[in-house]
Amino acid sequence: MPQPAHSVIVLDFETTGLSPTMGDRAIEIGAVKLINGQVVDTYQQLMNPGFRVSTFIEGYTGITNNMLRTAPSSEEVMAEFADFIGDSPLVAHNASFDKRFLDAEFERINTTYLGQFACSMLIARRLIQDSPTHKLGDLVRFKHIENDGTFHRALADSQMTARLWLLMIRELEEMGIPSPTMGLMQKISKTNKHAIAPLLKKLGTAIQ
Prior knowledge:
This protein is 43% helix and 15% strand. With 208 residues, the protein is of the alpha/beta class. The chain has a single domain (8-205), classed as 2-Layer Sandwich (Nucleotidyltransferase, domain 5), CATH 3.30.420. A five-stranded mixed sheet has the order 3-2-1-4-5, sandwiched between helices. A hairpin with a 2-residue loop joins strand 2 (26-35) and strand 3 (38-46). Helix 5 (120-127) runs parallel beside helix 7 (154-174) and helix 5 (120-127) packs across helix 8. The relative contact order is 0.18. This is DNA-directed DNA polymerase. Keywords: Exonuclease, Hydrolase, Nuclease.
């Protein structure tokens, strides 16, 4: 049965660096649960990676070593997060980054997930081609998406990604594509941007 794109979990990690294969770890997870386009639950938790983070990461995220010292272990948080997501489809902005950390942290606790994983950044590159960049903050400003000015904290970023995701679904619906599915969103993310208009037209719509 096709998964509706408006019922997903949008997640974001803050981490000690760029790559779990280089020893980097997650230090915060934030997520928004959407059902039928409505926020029904959120999740946010700091997690202690077991070592001190750099002053750069402290400055970039605002997450200090003192905050992490009293945070629960990554293993404890990720077990709880696995229960939160269940088998829901997942969405993240620059999903390849978040997926690497989700996979690595779940591997530590011998857990996996069943849901599909879609990238809002790849989809935005195709559906919002006139945005100056496709960084989350730039898309939020370009599309005048409501935000409180907080960036690089996991829950705030996942909330803004969720609003961007729902905006893109609404724009597809306005083009005549009712109830976009996760399969369609993933297909859009993999389609050459020059082929997007013909694809959507083929689906029974014409971009105005």
